[in-house]
Amino acid sequence: MRAFEFVAARDSRHAVALLAERAGTAKVKVLAGGTDLLADLKFSSHTPDVVVDISRAEDLKYIAMTEEGLRIGSLVTHTEIMRSPIVRDLFPALVDAAHTIGAVQTRNLGTLGGNLVTAVPSVDSGPTLVALDARVTVLGPAGQRQMPLAEFFVGPRKTALKPDELLVEILIPKENLGKPTHFLKFGLRKGQALALVNVAASFWVNWDAQAFVAPRIALGAVAPKVMHASTAEAYLEGRAIAPEAMTEAGRLAAGDAKPISDFRASADYRRDLIAILTRRALEGAFEQARAKRAEKKK
Amino acid sequence: MTKVTLTVNGETRTASVPPEMTLLRMLREELNLTGSKLGCDVGDCGACTVLVDGKAVNSCLMLAGQADGRDVLTIEGLATMERLHPIQQAFEEKGSLQCGFCGPGVIMSAKALLDDNPDPTEQEIRDALAGNLCRCTGYSKMIEAIQAVARGESARPARKSA
Predict the structure, then answer these.
(1) Interface with A, mutate which of B5, B40, B66, B146 (most A CBs under 10 A)
(2) H or E stretch including B24?
């Protein structure tokens, strides 16, 4: 590994101060869980001059229910998400997504914020949060700004973060608390594999009309960034819930995507996967909606 | 240089290391604890697995400076001069390892699992070992060994060390 200067930040404000001080004149990288950055530092030719370690910033380690919704600090690890009683209760899809990332050792180190900041098209934390209309907060020298996660992702490995900004929080808005959501990932192996396709489907149910309300379908690994399958979403809005509708939504989602062929899979194969995974994710979300309803009636 | 003071296997250790040194290299090269192995060096193979504050992590993915003040347990911290750790004993009895390179990492992953969940299902064991790659024998005998420890077998008195 090439030499660099190592600075440990005490908290998020200190980290932002360090970034403001150094990012203008030096190439600075932020170290959170390190599961991606350390591999880059060892094998990439673009090594930074300065590494700002935020792994001890305790103020970014929280999962909290507030009036605006569920707030997750960017340094919460994948293991912590999997073990959080609030997340397990409200968003089992987030637990499933976290579980597909790496293995125990990398989930103990890797953070939600770090995963999102990599902004790789296959980012496993992405689809569920995009399907839940998550917003992110970034902190910079001028203060905080908020944006939808879908806009935070700009392209492959590109985010809306400026060099002197830090991702500090992920918010799932209150109107989506407990919204039935299902996440599916298809990789070449069960363990430690990148997604060929990952999909999250989310919708409320109008039980009187047995219809989809506010349907969201988010796709990963099939476009430069995590994307909404907008045609499929528009098709489902207000439509009666039926197996045929879910199959058709899958077909439309496959048309919405812009997959590439690479050494892992061809674009055609990825399209086939999208159609099937989208249908299954819709089925899974509906199953969850029914189970929640049955539980409430008890 | 970064001064790092941490607890390793119950003892306080200090070393002055370059900022880019990983915890794994510090353990191996500064503290002469070569039980943790350098395999892939990118967090895929798990041969470098150690417990930091009780959690299994890839020591190749942590900078030594990040471990400052923390409590690290390596494979060297399991056995005593008199006896193997029950997990090590079970691995020996079941013939769970062949070349043994992945062993320290696998055993540390098993230790983290059993500390947290003393009665894991087979699926939970498989999940706990998903980040440890073995290219010799496969995982069946490792899983049997971990199940034996969970059932309280492997209580056979350990052989005396020479």
Answers:
(1) B66
(2) helix B23-25
Domain topology for B86-150: DNA polymerase; domain 1 (1.10.150)
d(CA B45, CA B102): 8
The pTM assigned to this predicted structure is 0.95
What are the two backbone dihedrals, phi and then psi, of residue A231, each rounded to the nearest 5 degrees? -65, -40
Chain centre to alpha carbon of residue A16: 23
Does residue B144 contact residue B87 with C-beta atoms inside 8 Å? no
pLDDT one-digit tens code per residue, A104-128: 999 999 999 999 999 999 999 999 9
The CATH superfamily label for domain B2-75 reads Beta-grasp domain (3.10.20.30)
Are residues B127 and B117 in contact, defined by beta-carbon separation less than 8 angstroms? no
Positions of E strands within B39-90 = 49-52, 55-58, 71-73
Strands A135-140 and A227-228 come out as: unpaired
**Under DSSP, is residue A63 helix (H, G, I), strand (E, B) or coil?**
strand
Contacting residues of A for B146, CB less than 8 Å apart: none
- pLDDT, tens digit (0-9, with 9 covering 90-100), for A255-269: 999 999 999 999 999
Complex prediction ipTM: 0.94
Give contacts of A4 with chain B, Cβ < 8 Å.
19-20
Task: Give residue limits of the domains in chain B.
Answer: 2-75, 86-150
